[in-house]
Amino acid sequence: MTSAAIDVPALAAGREAPRARAAFRPRLPLGRLALRAGALGLGLLLWHLAASLKLDLGLVTFRNVPTPLDVARAAAALAQSPKLGAHVGASLARVLSGFLAALAAGVVLGLAIGRSAVARDLLLPPLEVLRPIPAVAWIPLAILMFPSSELSMVFITFTGALFPILLNTVHGAEAVSARLVASARSLGAGQGAILREVVVPSAAPSIVTGAAIGMGTAWFCLVTAEMISGQYGIGYFTWESYTLQNYDDIVVGMLLIGLLGMASSAAVRALGSLAMPWTRAGIRA
Q: How far apart are CA 99 and CA 206, in angstroms?
């Protein structure tokens, strides 16, 4: 009976996997790539026209907005400066530290809340009170709580990444099929084995989704903290450029934040896909 219970899903997966792989393998999506490139090109063109003509639309003005060519020159100058490595390195170290701490805490708390009514009653109410507080509101308290500005910025990054990971983990843990849990119990699995072999694999897609969202939120919160209490970092560079009226560098900093946030979120999704080989057949480009 045990072998049948294992073989039937395996045979079903064997029949479906080639079909799914064939559905997503066939041709290169050149049309979609061209459409995306065209959308970016159109955005750059509109930006160039608005900045070059110094449009003033009343509520929005482009009089002081640099053109894409000005931003490209500023980006080239920054790329040749030793400050770029210091700013990017500082921001990456802060984001990674806060994100990893949030990932560990969010997964542990989320699994506990999602699978235990007692943990849900004890932990969820205070967490729900803290969740809507924006990162800016944490900055004064973080400066008072921690002995260094570095730790306070890591803490703010941690708070930003924690709640997306936590809530997605709770959702994934709650959505675990009761039949799978009952089947594991009938085969003699204890609570630890059920958590390890059933709950965590079932909740893994939701955890990865929350981690990808949390990484983007971590960048948002870190930049806010760096603008106020940092000495190095992309957020500090952007704010310093504003105070010095280097408008070209402001846009360079903004684009750098966007690129780093996009790349780090993509890296989280890629690592999650490697950790969940059973979901790769359904991934769409």
A: 16
How far apart CA 242 and CA 244 sit, in angstroms, is: 5
Residue 110: other Cβ atoms inside 10 A:
28
DSSP category for residue 177:
-
pTM: 0.80
pLDDT digits (tens, 9 = 90+) for 148-200: 889 999 999 999 999 999 999 999 999 888 888 888 888 887 888 888 888 88
245 falls within a domain? yes
Arithmetic mean of pLDDT, 249-275? 91
* Residue 272: closest CA among 259, 261, 283: 283
Partnered with residue 61 across adjacent β-strands are 56
Identify the residue with better confidence: 12 or 254. 254
Task: Indicate whether 249 belongs to any domain.
Answer: yes
Angle 210-213-215 from CA coordinates, rounded to 5°: 105
- CATH number of the domain encompassing residue 235: 1.10.3720.10
Quote the domain boundaries for residue 108.
82-282
Sorting pLDDT into bands at 50, 70 and 90, what band is 27? low
Dihedral (C-alpha) 89, 94, 100, 103: value to the nearest 10 degrees?
Answer: -130
CA atoms within 13 Å, Cβ hemisphere of 46 = 6
Of 228, 210, 252, the closest CA to residue 83 belongs to 252
Burial of 7 (0-12, 13-18, 19+ CB in 10 A): exposed
Say how many domains are in the chain.
Answer: 1
Confirm whether 207 is domain-assigned.
yes
Distances in Å between the Cα of 271 and the Cα atoms of 90, 128, 253, 276 are 23, 29, 27, 9
Domain membership of residue 53 (yes or no) is no
